[in-house]
Specification:
two-stranded antiparallel ribbon, globular, 2% strand, mainly alpha
Amino acid sequence: MAGWTGAALSALNPLRTLWLALAAAFLLALLLQLAPGRLLPSCALFQDLLRYGKTKQSGPQRPAVCRAFDVPKRYFSHFYVISVLWNGYLLWLLSQSLFLGVPFPNWLRALLRTLGATQFRALGMESKASQMLVGELALSAFLVLVFLWVHSLRRLFECFCISIFSNAAIHIVQYCFGLVYYVLVGLTVLSQVPMDDKNVYVLGRNLLKQARWFHILGMMMFFWSSAHQYKCHVILSNLRRNKKGVIIHCQHRIPFGDWFEYVSSANYLAELMIYISMAVTFGFYNLTWWLVVMYVFFSQALSAFFNHKFYRSTFVSYPKHRKAFLPFLF
């Protein structure tokens, strides 16, 4: 089993290659922003594809050709509509397979194999220890897909009932990427479910028997970081409401409270913690998901850097002790 695990972790399948490439691209973009100004690419499109919302408005002068591809930032809600529907569908298929033994549709099995789905035929399933490990991985993937669906459902609720969007914009490329992202991340989770040519590993009634300490820890971390993100979004929303909850403006103000006391983009930090909680749920050792976490880290850090720069340049009284993304560090 140890040999198989080492081989599986070292394999660079299509999914891992994609997430690694995305993480590397955003790391490079972040490093270019941190570099001296003369090293930054002067291409307006490059800057336009990195910024969104208020940071797009406060960035370099945007040529008309860039503004022609703007879509409203409030279209963020479309990402979560897609995620709730698509990942809810995947969750339903996975539940049918894990607990009732219903095989995945042929098209989905073929797609997962192409992406590099986990195979358990080579595990030597005659070993009881191997069966336990495969059961743990199956339960981990199920829980993470539940977390992803719950997260998307909460964010969709916040988009419609909590958040107050201004007339800020995102680029059409960013919008299309966001739509594809939640489809891809759901497939990434599903590809971690142990399966052979036709079926996934069936948990049946052994759900609780497969539960381990990292499942409990990951669940606690997920709800803890989700609660903080919700609170941060409420804080941002209240900056545009009066004491009676009525929307009075769409201007930007300095947020205070919760993790905003430490970083400018507390909601982005909470997003990172949510994805780390899923890595914990996978038992800490799932390389594919850690590559997803790397992508989330660098993409959120880049956005947080722009946010921090916006706040410091806009508000003279902005707290000097706050960092952009990581408390006391960055």
